[in-house]
Amino acid sequence: MDDALSEIAIMKKLNHPNIICLYEVINDPEVDKLYLVMELAEGGQLIEWNEDLQIFEKVNTNVFIDEMFIKKVIRDSLKAINYLHKNGIIH
């Protein structure tokens, strides 16, 4: 439980457009559970690696992803990681 509370404390401090936001934590001691209310990541997972074809694909589409889309995903990911590192958080 201590690990979860540490992660929650970190998530509450974050404010970046490329990092999912934690809105609320609900502690239910009757069932010994924590419920995290988080921002919706519309569309879910963006891409996955197709081992058979050796390419990245958009999830559930079997469509090749163009270079501009990949550049945006990588750029946004690097911005989020840079933000985390500047705030002393290692990912």
- The CATH architecture category equals 2-Layer Sandwich
- Tally of separate domains: 1
Side by side, the strands of the main sheet go 1-2
Q: Which strand-content bin applies to the residues?
A: 15-25%
Structure description:
The strands form two sheets. This protein has a two-stranded antiparallel sheet. A two-stranded antiparallel sheet has the order 3-4. It has a single domain (2-86), classed as Phosphorylase Kinase, domain 1 (2-Layer Sandwich), CATH 3.30.200. The mean pLDDT is 87. The chain is α+β, with helices and mostly antiparallel strands and 91 residues long. The chain is built from two helices and four strands. Strand 1 (22-28) and strand 2 form a beta hairpin.
Topology:
Elements: H1 2-13, E1 22-28, E2 33-38, E3 47-50, E4 55-58, H2 67-86
Antiparallel strand pairs: 1-2, 3-4
Defining key terms:
about 90 residues; alpha+beta; Phosphorylase Kinase, domain 1; two-stranded antiparallel ribbon; 4 strands; about 25% strand; extended
Brief summary:
By secondary structure, the protein is of the alpha+beta class. The chain has a single domain (2-86), classed as Phosphorylase Kinase, domain 1, CATH 3.30.200.
